[in-house]
Amino acid sequence: TQLLEQSPQFLSIQEGENLTVYCNSSSVFSSLQWYRQEPGEGPVLLVTVVTGGEVKKLKRLTFQFGDARKDSSLHITAAQPGDTGLYLCAAQGGKLIFGQGTELSVKP
Amino acid sequence: NAGVTQTPKFQVLKTGQSMTLQCAQDMNHNSMYWYRQDPGMGLRLIYYSASEGTTDKGEVPNGYNVSRLNKREFSLRLESAAPSQTSVYFCASSEAGTGFFEQYFGPGTRLTVT
After folding, report:
1. Of A14, A48, B7, B27, whose CB count within 10 A is highest?
2. In the predicted model, is pLDDT for residue A37 greater than 80?
3. pLDDT at B29
4. What pLDDT score does A31 carry?
5. How many angstroms separate the CA of residue A38 from the nearest CA in chain B?
6. DSSP state of B50
7. CA A9 vs CA A33, B62, B99: distances in Å
8. Does B6 or A30 have the greater pLDDT score?
9. What is the mean pLDDT of each run of 10 residues along chain B (114 residues)?
């Protein structure tokens, strides 16, 4: 069974701090996605990365796909309360599989 | 466009009761999915339908059945509910069954089995 391990599982920070969330696996994936989920709603896609070493930026969010396509990271600069939510990585390995999620709380 | 809709939003069942969760999408997507979400375990795939007329098991199919009624609708049935099936259930759809395509999720059904 292919597994995606996310770390940390919980993160509570103050507004303005930077943070990084990691998504790791021992398997190689053809692509990797990051989703964000707010309480009471379904996940919403933030980004898809396809090429090893790829870096994508979405405003204050920076996503990186590892060179070997086994891992990825999400870095948020100057976090805001609106960034609060569950962040999920998902990778294509036959079917789409999800990590267990990182619950982020940004306090004003 | 409503996107992906799910009914009901909340449900409480007694052990042994049956129910069907309904899902519909209006984006003309080929693929549809059912996931369950439990604390600390992310989303786990129950069943999926790569295209109309086909269904396949996912990671945790035991205790569930599905029907792809047409291109728009994909239902999930619990024949004899068990407390272990207490969870939040999400339906999703995508253009095709690969990770290159975004999955669009419904708002979820919160199911409690007592």
Report:
1. A48
2. yes
3. 93
4. 87
5. 10
6. S
7. 18, 27, 23
8. B6
9. 92 97 96 92 91 92 96 97 97 76 92 97
Q: Which uninterrupted H or E stretch holds A47?
A: strand A44-49
By the CB < 8 Å criterion, does A31 face chain B?
yes
Q: How many CA atoms lie within 13 A of A49 on its CB side?
A: 28
For the ranges A5-14, A23-32, B21-30, the lowest mean pLDDT is seen at A23-32
Question: Which pLDDT does position A15 carry in this prediction?
Answer: 97
The residue of chain A nearest to residue B37, with distances taken between CA atoms, is A100
For residue B3, give Cα distances in angstroms to B6, B76, B101: 10, 18, 15
Per the CB < 8 A criterion, the answer to whether B23 and B106 are in contact is yes
**Contact between B52 and B71 (Cβ < 8 Å):** yes
Which residues does chain A have within 8 Å of residue B34's beta carbon, measured at their own beta carbons?
none
Report the pLDDT value the prediction gives residue B98, as an integer from 0 to 100.
55
Q: What is the DSSP letter of A90?
A: E
Query: How close A49 gets to chain B, by Cα (Å)?
Result: 9
- How many Å apart are CA A44 and CA B103, to the nearest integer? 8
Distance between CA A5 and CA A26 in Å, rounded? 9
Overall average pLDDT of the A19-28 stretch = 94
Q: Residue A67: count other Cβ atoms within 10 Å of its Cβ.
A: 11
Rounded to an integer, what distance in angstroms lies between the CA atom of residue B114 and that of residue B96? 37
